[in-house]
Amino acid sequence: MPNPPAGPPSCGGRASRPLWPLLLLAVAFASSALLAQYQKKPPDFGGIYAFPTPTHPEPRAAIERGLDVAMLAAGLGLAAYLILRRRSREGVVLLSMGAIAYFGFYRKGCTCPIGSIQNVTLSLVDPRYLISLGVIAFFFLPLVAALLFGRVFCGGVCPLGAVQDLVLLRPKTVPEKLERYLRWLPYVYLVVAVWFAGWGLPIATGASKVLVARRFLICEWDPFIGLFRLSGSFHMLAIGAGFILVGMFYGRPYCRWLCPYGALLSILSRVAWKPVSITPDRETYCGQCADACPFGAIRDFSADRATCVACARCYECCPREIVRLRREGIPAKRYVAGADARGAS
Amino acid sequence: MSETSTRRKFIDTSCRVLGFAALGGAATLLTKRASAQAVYQVDPLKCISCDLCRTSCVLSLSAVKAVNEFSKCGYCMLCPAYMDVTSQPDERGVPSGRVCPQDAMKRRVVGKEDLDDPNNNYYEYVIDEARCTGCGKCVKACKPPAGNGSLRLEIRYNRCVTCNECSIQIACPEAAIVRVPTPGMSPVETHGGPPHA
Questions:
Q1: Which of residues 4-43 of A touch B (CB under 8 A)?
Q2: Model-level pTM?
Q3: How far is CA B1 from the centre of its chain?
C-alpha cells in the first residue's frame, strides 16, 4: 500500500512510520495559526467604508503617440520648406527651437531617431522583441526625407543638433587632415552600436553558459538627454557639458563626428533628390557661403550633400539672396549689413 | 547636358529608387511585427524589492512607486509595512519605529476610533506618492506570510519617460522589468520577450 509521507492522522498508527513528517505538519499548522493573525482578509466595514481603488496612471494615449509622429513629419516638411524654398535661416532657427522644446524638453528626448537604430536592429535580429509603430516611424521618416531633401532632419528637427547649433558662437575650422579621420567616426560608432544592440558581447559565465549582454550604447552615451531631463548620471551630464563647450567653437561636434544616425543620413543624402544646393547659374563666386559654413560642407562652390546639415547659414550671407530678399520687400535684418560689409571688402 | 552629368544623374536616380525600395521593404517587415506601443512594467512575481528601482532610474526621483491594492489589504493595526515591528513599543504597545524612510505611508482609522485599545481599530494605509522613492522596503515587509502582499512596486506612467533603454531594467537582478504592449499584460502571452536577453 502506498504510504504518503504526510497523510491524514488516521494512517499514522503504523509503528514503522517515521515521526518527522507529522512533526513538520504540526509545526506548519502552528506557524500558520500564528501568522493568521497578520494574514487578514479585508474586513467588512458594514457599508460605512468604500474601498478606494489605487490609481494606475495610463501610459501615453494613442493620440499623443500619434502627435509625436505627426510633429516629426510636420517638422521635416517645414524644415525642407524653410531651408530649400524660403532659404530662411531665421525660420530654421525658430523651427529648431521648437524641436528642442517639443522633442527635447517635452518628450524628454525619447523617442528619437538616433536611438531607434537599435530598436530596429534588435527587432530585425530577434523577432520576439517588441517594437512599437512610433519607433518605426521615427526611424524611417527622416531617412525618407534624406532621400528627398538631404539632411533636413539634422538642420531643423533634431533637438540634439539644435542644441549644438544654438551654442555655436565662434566657429573655427578643424585641420583638414584631422577632419578626414574624424569623419569616419560616425560609421565606426554605427557599426559598434548596431552590434551591441543586435548581438551584444557574449560573456562566458561558467562552463558552457553564455550570457549575451545586449546594450543600447547610443542611449547610454547620449550627449544631451540629461539636459532635457534635467537629471542623469554623471558621465551623461559631463559628456553633454563637454559637447556644448566644444560646440561653442567647432560646429556640431556630435552630429559631425559621432552621430550614428547622421552616418545613415549622410549615406542616403548622397543621392538626395533636391538637397541644399548653391545655385550654379546664379553663382557670383564670392565664396561667402563657404566662409559662413561652420561645417566645411561647401567645397568648390557647391554644397557637399553628405556633410551639409541644412542649417541655411550659407543662404543667410549670400549676396544674391540678400538682393532677392530686398526685391521681395522683406525688411533688412541685422545680418544684411554684415554681409554687405564683407561683400564690399 | 554633358554625358558624365547625365550618367551621374542616372546613377543618383537609380540609387534613390533602390533606397526607397529598401526602406519600404524594411518598414513593411517591421510594421508586421510591430505593436501599437510598448511600456515597461514590474513583474510582481519576480520583484524582490531590492532598492535598485530607487537608485537606477534616470529620473532623480524614480518613476517606480509603491502602490497599495486596498482590496487585498488587511487594514491591520499592526501593519508590518507601516511600522517597524522590531522597534521599541510605546506605552500602548504600538511599535514606535516606521518602515518607510521617507515617511510616505500614512494611515487613518476607518470608522469610529477606539482610543483605549488600538487593536480594535482598522486602518487605511495610503502612500504619499510625492514622497515615495520606490525603495520597496514596505513592499518587502508586506510580503506573505508576514503581510497580505497588497503592496507592490509599480512603474507610474505619469512619471516614466519611457526611455528607449530602461536603466532599471538593466540593473534589475531578477529581470523583473518587462516590456509589454498593454500595461497589466503578461510578457509571455504577448511574446514580448526580454529585450536584453
A1: 31-32, 35, 38-43
A2: 0.83
A3: 64
